[in-house]
Amino acid sequence: MRFFWVIFFVFFSSSNYAQDTHYSLFESTNSLLNSSLISHQKNDYQIEVQRRSQWFVIPKPFNTFSVSFNAKNIYKKISLGTTVLNDVSGDSYFSTDGLALHISYLILKNNNNISVSLQAGSYQRSINYESLIFLEDEILGNNKKSFFDIGVSASNKIVLNEISTFLFGLSFYHLNTPDQSFYSNEKVFLEKKHVLYLKYQKEINQKTAIMPSAYFSSQNQQKEFLIGGKYKYKINKFVDLDLGLYRRIEDAFIITLGLAKNNLQAQISYDINTSSL
């Protein structure tokens, strides 16, 4: 049985080289979704903390953790943000650690709030060979690799009327396709990634609102499509409750629960897997 899990995680560690980390609560970390959204955030300053544990029933779950700090309109219409990321996968402890900086500029035009952004990050990937078992002697490469990464984003928030808004955004990541191979004589590039994000929000009455949204990303052969939405209910003057249901096509249903009080918000989600895995 141990041999099966070793083979399973060796496969996943190698296949993850060309993929990005992702969250089910994709709307809760603006810098990873679309960094131009920093210009649209509600408050002048915002801290986002998110953690995901994927497939916790297997021996070594995949864990992702990120912390972001964003400052809106810090100078005229310029907003700044920073994100720290840690991701660990499988028996090999294949990890990605990095720091990204974001700068966003807001263009106001009637009821259109257009924002563009640039992001740059420095990352290090590492692997622990000691935890792996090989059937034959292998020539192992370095156990660490550092690389630089850049991306651009744009978004448009349209005020339709007093009770409804529509937002859409485009993001382009890994424009420089950085090499992340552990071997000096081989090239393994981090493929470009494209993200489309759509969100509609409408207040039904003074206590309730609906927020349907959609997310699509494409990176080489990997594609991810989520569609769903949230229902928001104002419990009292200070506390809001939101319930969400999303569908990640050909993979899982996602249920979410959130509470907000003043400027603090907490959310939790759970994936109900429908794929063969």
Write the topology of this structure.
Blueprint: H1 2-15, H2 30-33, E1 45-54, E2 62-75, E3 78-89, E4 94-109, E5 112-126, E6 144-161, E7 164-173, E8 193-203, E9 208-219, E10 222-234, E11 239-248, E12 252-261, E13 264-273
Tell me about this structure.
The chain is globular, with a radius of gyration of 20 Å. β6 and β7 (164-173) form a beta hairpin. The protein has 2 helices and 13 strands, in the order ααβββββββββββββ. A 13-stranded antiparallel beta sheet has the order 1-2-3-4-5-6-7-8-9-10-11-12-13. Mean pLDDT is 86; it is low at 1-18. The chain has 277 residues and is mainly beta. Helices cover 6% and strands 58% of the residues.
Keywords:
277 residues; mainly beta; 13-stranded antiparallel β-sheet; 2 helices; 58% strand; globular; disordered N terminus
